[in-house]
Design brief:
Layout: E1 18-22, E2 27-34, E3 37-45, H1 55-66, H2 70-74, E4 80-84, H3 98-111, E5 115-117, H4 119-122, H5 128-137, H6 141-144, H7 154-167
Length: 179
């Protein structure tokens, strides 16, 4: 377990293949990097319908289908799978629902990451729009063209890209110091 936590995570090798996932119950952002460059980034969605207690199973199945089981095979091929650690935001849209948090933890468990990154490690307290801009600034034109437009949910895709960039040493969290 100790190896999963990224508190003192070193940058990954520039030749390493990396899958980054921003987990969710209704949608997940996914990004794939090879040789430190973004190859693709997309949104994976599910419609679990009325089976709310089983949303995590539906999301796990959609992740497998969307990636052609690439995440399951990634570990065998030496690729890293990095996932953002689930966090409940009290007062946010989810209302801090801990049942959602438990299901989200089950999605992360089903992905079986090789590394976990906490939100505050890679983006700090940065709001969605500034974070999205900073992620896009770190990509060249070719890499930007690999990002799927997911409309209002594009931020989930960009979070996955940001997680990958952070692990590759291409995205540093801005630190704010008091005067």
């Amino acid at each position: 377990w100790e190896e999963l936590w990224s508190g003192e995570m070193k940058n990954l090798s520039l030749r390493e293949r990396l899958y980054a996932v921003d987990p969710g119950l209704r949608c997940c952002g996914m990004a794939y990097f090879e040789n430190s460059l973004l190859q693709w980034a997309r949104l994976v969605e599910t419609d679990a319908g009325g089976s709310e207690p089983y949303r995590w199973i539906a999301m796990s199945e959609e992740l497998d289908l969307a990636s052609d089981e690439v995440i399951c095979n990634a570990r065998h091929e030496g690729a890293s799978v990095v996932v953002e650690f689930p966090k409940a935001y009290v007062g946010a849209k989810s209302g801090g629902d801990y049942e959602d948090l438990l299901q989200l933890a089950a999605v992360v468990g089903a992905i079986r990451p090789t590394r976990i990154v906490r939100p505050h490690e890679w983006k700090g307290q940065m709001k969605k729009d500034p974070c999205n801009r900073r992620v896009l600034e770190r990509l060249d034109g070719t890499e930007r063209s690999h990002i799927e437009d997911a409309g209002a949910k594009t931020h989930n895709v960009l979070d996955a890209v940001g997680i990958g960039l952070y692990c590759l040493g291409r995205f540093e969290r801005r630190r704010v110091f008091s005067r």
